[in-house]
Design goal:
alpha/beta, Rossmann fold, five-stranded parallel beta sheet, 35% helix, binds flavin mononucleotide, binds adenosine-5'-triphosphate, FMN adenylyltransferase activity
């Protein structure tokens, strides 16, 4: 059994999220997803969809075995509970691989940190970020 952790806000779901979770799932046999608490999303506009609703929707996705609501204060608390073998970062996640590896080592957690690629938008009009979807809604409905 190889346990994998992915994480993110997952506010309004789109194919980029699915691509990330499929790539993360390919690193092991069981995928756990940590869904960020609204109060911790401070590097961009906070999510519109409530915490538990985002958790429920992520858990319903095919590559996902279990979705967990993140801890409010310490992002390593769920990691200590899940005990993953691999943490997979998304292409644009601001977290630094080396800093996460150092924090894991300090806590005595033996876990690899990997980063995966982006699903890029081609000419097929797909909306591959929550921000893009919100911009489109504002453009077309406001
Ligand atoms: C290893 C790891 C564990 C995380 N655990 C939590 C957590 O417990 N609670 C939380 O609110 N955010 C947690 N986060 C942060 C968010 O999942 C996420 O990176 C960020 O807040 C949302 O931004 P994004 O959707 O742009 O990635 C964690 C991030 C990493 C890399
Ligand atoms: N197009 C994409 N291709 C691959 N991974 C993606 C894509 N969009 C989001 N992800 C990944 O999904 C996870 C959650 O992303 P997040 O919830 O921040 O969505 P987002 O669409 O990037 O949001 P926003 O547009 O608000 O920045 C992150 O790990 C992120 O890297």
């Amino acid at each position: 059994m190889t346990r994998v952790v992915a994480q993110g806000t997952f506010d309004i779901l789109h194919p980029g999220h699915l691509h990330y979770l499929q790539e993360a799932a390919a690193f092991g046999s069981e995928l756990h997803v940590i869904v960020a608490r609204r109060e911790n999303v401070t590097h961009k506009d906070p999510p519109i969809v409530p915490d538990r609703q985002r958790q429920t929707m992520v858990e319903a996705l095919d590559p996902v075995d279990e979705a967990h609501l993140g801890h409010t204060e310490d992002i390593f608390v769920p990691i200590e509970r899940i005990e993953p073998d691999v943490i997979v970062l998304g292409h644009d996640q601001h977290h630094d691989e080396a800093a996460i590896s150092d924090a894991l080592a300090t806590r005595g957690i033996d876990c690899a940190v990997e980063r995966v690629s982006a699903l890029e938008s081609s000419s097929d009009e797909r909306l591959l970020s929550t921000g893009q979807i919100i911009d489109r809604i504002v453009q077309r409905r406001c």
